[in-house]
Amino acid sequence: MKIVHFVLSDSFAGIEQHVDEVLTNFSSHKLILICNESIASYFDKSINIYKVKNFGRRSFFGKYQLKKLIKDIDPDIIHTHGSKTSSIISSIKTKNYKHVATIHGVKKNKKIYEKADLIIGVSDKALEGINHETICINNWWHPKLKKIQNKKNKHALAVGRLEKVKGFDLLITSWKNIDTNLVIIGSGKERNKLNELIEQNNLSEKVKIIDAVKKEELLNYYQDASVLIISSRDEGGPRVALEALYLEIPVISTDVGHMSQILPKELLAEKNNQSALQDMLEKYVDNIHLYNQKAIFNFVEREFSIEEKMQELNDAYSLLASKS
User: Fold this and answer.
1) How many domains does the chain have?
2) Residue 115 gets which letter from DSSP?
3) What is the pTM of this model?
4) What is the CATH number of the domain that holds 175?
5) What backbone torsions phi and psi does residue 183 show, to the nearest 5 degrees?
6) DSSP per residue over 207-269, as a string?
7) pLDDT tens string 26-49
8) Does residue 33 belong to any structural domain of this protein?
9) Are residues 230 and 114 in the same domain?
10) Domain for residue 102, yes or no?
């Protein structure tokens, strides 16, 4: 089979990294990427890439050019990522190929995906409310991660875009009575507000925000982490939790994405509930070394590997292709 993956964004972020790893670790069929020319150089050099200029979902000319390109490629399946590309393909699709759409986050408007032949969600929560054929294929830990030696347990760690959905404001407000230092790594429009919140709560000696770092440098912060905290109000994954658990760093989280499949209830706080988050953090953060998560580490390493997820994706493609 010939399968085209389609992304059309201006930055190389989580979705693009996800697609890059699929295209470099999936060997069962011929995979091709169509992407915005401005991010093409960020993808692995081994990938067969067709570059296009970014265009809006209502651009007649953009869709005309894309339709012409797809006809030349002649794929069996087009796999879109996110609402924009899913909307575009739904509007130009022909009967010559099947359409698979992946939902990477928790979306309010999911109708846009329901014209696809198959919808994939990165968690069961991402698929809630969809009246269509769906399958959950969870995210995976980064395939090039190396196990950490000599962990130092210097600080608690939180990683993600500095946006309201990540709940870092809730996390900072909940840190008042905790002795462990907190390092938040990320960039985004909420940075100034979060720094002000740190000052207002007299936490400047205990809570630091560091700009987003490259994957290689992030490993140094993982090595120093006693625990990773997910404070998101909503989340498709979160993938960073899988990476931490693969590296045998304990995780506590709000109940978002696939976390309820991984962590016991006592390590999950109700999402968007500052009081519940604070209660959980005060109970576990300073004493996290007393709680053995070895069984969770082993579960994540086994069930959330990229090899496991590529087999699930191949099965989904094969089943879809077998249908008339």
Assistant:
1) 2
2) T
3) 0.85
4) 3.40.50.2000
5) -115, 125
6) EEEE----HHHHHHHHHTEEEEEE--SS-S--HHHHHHHHTT--EEEES-TTGGGTS-GGGEE
7) 988 999 999 999 999 999 999 999
8) yes
9) no
10) yes
